[in-house]
Design goal:
4 copies of one chain form a homotetramer. Chain A is built from 10 helices and 17 strands. The first copy, chain A, is α/β, with parallel strands linked by helices. In chain A, the strands form 3 sheets. Chain A has a 9-stranded mixed beta sheet with strand order 16-15-14-13-7-12-11-8-17. A 6-stranded parallel beta sheet of chain A has the order 3-2-1-4-5-6, sandwiched between helices. In chain A, strands 9-10 form a two-stranded antiparallel ribbon. In chain A, strand 11 and strand 12 form a beta hairpin. Chain A is globular and about 55 Å long. The model of chain A has no long low-confidence stretch (mean pLDDT 96). Chains in contact: A-B, A-C, A-D, B-C, B-D, C-D. At the A-B interface, strand 7, strand 8, strand 11, strand 12 and strand 15 of A face strand 7, strand 8, strand 11, strand 12 and strand 15 of B.
Chain lengths: 370, 370, 370, 370
């Protein structure tokens, strides 16, 4: 059985989420691969060592290039701040190694394009961490759409809103910098755009309106110094999908009451389905002829769920979605299919977000192919 | 006390709804007016007589012009098919009589403009039946917005969807004709636009996308003959409000699972509120600092509710909203305020819908003032 | 067509609700009766006259016996405080006139029994105002149960809770006196018991636990004087139905968050249905084989709804339920069926409540037939 | 740092859940213990080896007694069928080793009593897997109750219903045998009773009604042979808590529409809170003076949640609750507190369930101390 040594860069929340996901995927799923946690990198050597030890990695590096070069490492997982995705992924691809990069792919469309071209040239498996798509109930939604159970799809209405910047005294952070892929559209909206594409396919044209509501924020918590903010606090857009469906997307990080409101309603000629990430184990569905929506609760009839529990209602959480993402990645590395967002698809998401930005700035419809 | 003789034209569902509303308003509220049900008109003389008798009207007419000319009639209520609103309202205004006309004001923007000018010239009270606005809990929402409880309003996301045309074999009806103010935008969307204006005021510019999904329908139920359909089945739009808020509106009569889904979420810097006409006695509200939405159930703290019940949770229905609309109309006739949609405001709603149509047709942002 | 003169006693909220219901029933339904609002009685002659005028009654009485004796009056509607139900209804029955009495039937089981015997002896139509049962969606639930759509019924879990006494400084009122049918069980729970019987039939035995949480309350708002309270603030009970179903009922007027939470879940071998009076136009239903509950929203497929609106989602409110109750009463008076709670059935409800009281006091199972 | 070698018996779904929980607890939390996965036992030696390898255990045993005797093993985790809990736990206690046993503690009250006495005599840490209690939002509920935020608690209304036996052709299984702790009360209800005790403390007396609805079931799927069933399909009970609160509990495995409906409403003089395991990241709360319930979504303000995610709305699932249970167990083993259900408390749960059985059989109130 082929050896697969995981090399993980980054030891924050997302680093640990990756570490757990690799371990749990190994315990839960069967792969024709001998998975090992080969190496962990963090700029702080002590933290690298400590986390390696407690998460079960064999070696620790303080230089990420060394991790990439480590011959025991066959897959590079990147969980560092957004602006580091580009150099790390490019280096990994240059070394001919598969890459699993957290979202967003990059902090500019130019970088994203280079990355997807480099991935294509390297011919290796790539994945970007849009893990919400790996929810088994989202997989069910997608299957239903593709099997035609909702008929011809005519509308997608999506929203991803949270409230974490709603307080105007919430301080500036890197999320407020366009150069770090900040702003509500890049930070939240990209998840929604990725989901829309995942479910309905290509978008042809967009029109949009975006707004910076709070033009300045404290430089840090309680700091009287204010920093100017130019990234968007909210965006609304119209979408025309290639399949003929039309839709709206909205994203805001100022919306009181929402914590993780990645939601959508998809209307087809034979039914409507609705989802909200705040209740990620549920789908609401109304088929033609039914009097109203019914609630579907994730259960073991969904393969991704059955892997974790034999009983409906036990509920999956965020970490299981990550484990399922890793499972698909590993299947791809084993040459056995494996769905997920590769660099080419992640670049499409970036391109769509960029078109929305142009449409908002120029107040006109923009074709994605422009 | 001044006599006020009601003259009602039309004996359909809406005619009866008006008749009940006038009676119930008299029983429930105090007015400085001596309200009488003076005359009822229907083209069918027998039906006119029968309904007059069972609804309590003093006289019956088969010619609506006679009703308008009847000296005992001081207010003309119009509940006939849409294309008759114009001639009847114009005749009533020519006679110098106040008019209470069902929505939509007219079947074309030109008619609507003439009607609002005639109303202005006549100097009489006019009202158009956008009765959803008279829901006490909507009044509460509006008061909260106007008192600044939600802070600066930044977003309005509205939808009015139903499923009554979702079946492609649902036959053609007058609602499928533009010349009768048909189509999802005119039939449903206008309620939503009226609500958006009621709550947030003027809209400055719109961009939109609309679609006819089913291009033909049976001429009548089960009829093999098909009629071509050109009115919109669904519309999505972006709105820019004069107060700076941005938003989306969607309307569809093809959306499985919804019966009366006139809904909105309004996001402000100090809170979010949400409403759905399918649960018309409820408002969901999250104020800054609160962990999540709380449900408000209409109760006697709301004056319009207290008029009907001393206890929360008893619930108002459609007919009470109509009674409340009539109450406001009667207050206006008594010269004591009285909110509601007059012809000038109803024309603004029509103008906004017309701008959305232009924006959809020409695929560009349209200023309302164009 | 036979004349039917309505004589109404009481001019409070419930008196007006009756007045509106009689008027609206006449306008909305066809009856083989010539309904007139014949007389209104209130101890205060001026109020009697005023209300008669504004509600459309032909005469006013300040002595209720005179109203009963009035030859123009053929039906006695009683909306006075609970302790007056007995003398008024007995006088009406003595005069051989049909009676429509607000709930509860009486303030003691002994009175209730006398009333039902007098009704039986008089052989006239009687009705008690358990109007929640006349909700068309409750009628649907009952029909489904009776047609066997839920299979064999195995469980009823019901609750009627509100919060109007939850504040311990809410003052004493007549509702705190057992002699006026006060306490959570009599005031709220009786609605729930009536509903349970309406849907599932006879109860055979009960066991119960009740509690007075706040043993004293201010004599009036803000009054430092305290009155001792002995009626129950909450009650929980087990029920064994004659049809073999088992269940629980709970009632409290101390439960924060609820305004009119008359709710139940009925479980059968073929399905589960759930209802909450706070959303009175909805039923939640899960049939065998379905993955979860679906929501049914009242619409014109339900006859009682269709009478008021041709479109689903318009929603009925409290007043329509009252109108529907009156319609059934009028059908009964016309000798054409007419469902509803008569004095015999209302006595059964009282008997069931009394058994619950005994069971709670003696801490044992009590057979209703004891 | 002290070594702690985990010995796990059983390789089913629950065995794997334990294996993952130990690993993830080690990665997520800091303990003053050096945790190792020392040994795994399964009667099938090949399966034992395979699972040990893929879950990361150092050794595999096919004889559970050998695992208990293994000197590298310092904690015995038992995830075998219910009837094996007793011999395994007794052997572990005899060896003086701490025990972590899945629920139920035993298949008879007598066994449970012996086990809790043996645990007391051994003086070691014991835990039983009532992992729903380790939900951070349940911890919040408990803290709120204990801090008095809901005032004096007056009512607990709980239910644990599922639908997995609702189909009468669902075959017999060990869950249908009393000797394996089968029946709705033992299988589901015990979780609810444990939760009620966790939140409100001791119960003093119960009255109950239980029922076997389907008296026979196929011996296996599709098998024409029927087996007689005597365990309960549903149970309803009244509870009197020592703290004065009263309540109801219901449990059914025949209730269509529910998958994991472990739910409760707790009413206090200062507020009401409600929970449903089918939405395990949510609590609904209404405090005195608030107009209605508000939804709390688990977030990083709850320590148990913060361990897994820095952002609200990410959601925990079943496996995180298990990890949190293990974390508390490990804290207890480290002598640093550590909440959870020990054998003494689990015996109290069994004793309460047994009292409910007696109350149902004898149709009378039963004191727990009887």
């Amino acid at each position: 059985m082929r050896e697969l040594g995981i090399g993980l860069i980054g030891t924050g929340f997302m680093g640990r989420a990756h570490a757990l996901a690799f371990h749990n995927a190994k315990a839960v799923f069967d792969f024709p691969l001998n998975l090992t946690l080969a190496a962990l990198a963090d700029a702080d050597p002590q933290r690298a060592r400590q986390c390696a030890q407690s998460w079960g990695f064999a070696t620790a590096h303080s230089d990420w290039q060394q991790l990439i070069d480590d011959p025991k490492v066959n897959l590079i997982a990147i969980t560092t701040p957004n602006h580091l995705h580009f150099p790390m992924a490019m280096a990994a691809l240059a070394a001919g190694k598969p890459v699993y990069c957290e979202k967003p792919l990059a902090v500019s469309l130019e970088q994203a394009e280079q990355m997807q071209q480099a991935a294509k040239a390297a011919g290796v498996v790539t994945r970007v961490g849009y893990n919400y798509q790996h929810n088994p109930i989202i997989q069910l939604a997608r299957d239903m759409i593709q099997r035609g159970e909702l008929g011809r799809i005519i509308s997608f209405q999506g929203e991803f809103s949270e409230d974490f910047m709603a307080d105007p005294t919430s301080p500036w952070s890197w999320r407020c910098e366009a150069a770090h892929a900040g702003g509500a559209l890049a930070d939240l909206g990209s998840h929604l755009l990725a989901m829309a594409r995942h479910l309905l396919g290509n978008v042809e044209a967009v029109c949009a309106d975006s707004q910076t509501v709070h033009n300045q924020r404290p430089a840090s918590a309680g700091n009287p110094e204010q920093r100017a903010i130019v990234v968007d606090d909210q965006v609304h857009a119209l979408l025309r999908f290639t399949n003929g469906a039309r839709g709206t997307v909205s994203s805001s990080w100022l919306k009181h009451g929402y914590k993780n409101h990645l939601s959508f309603e998809i209307s087809g000629t034979l039914g409507t389905l609705a989802f909200d990430q705040e209740r990620l184990n549920e789908l609401r569905l109304c088929r033609i002829g039914q009097p109203g929506f019914q609630r579907l609760l994730a259960g073991p009839d969904l393969p991704g769920y059955a892997a974790f529990s034999p009983a409906a209602g036990h509920q999956l959480g965020y970490n299981e979605l990550k484990t399922l993402e890793v499972q698909e990645l590993l299947m791809a590395l084993a040459g056995q299919g494996g769905s997920g967002t590769d660099f080419a698809e992640a670049w499409e998401v970036e391109r769509l977000a960029a078109a929305i930005r142009v449409a908002a700035r120029e107040q006109r419809w923009v074709k994605i192919s422009e």
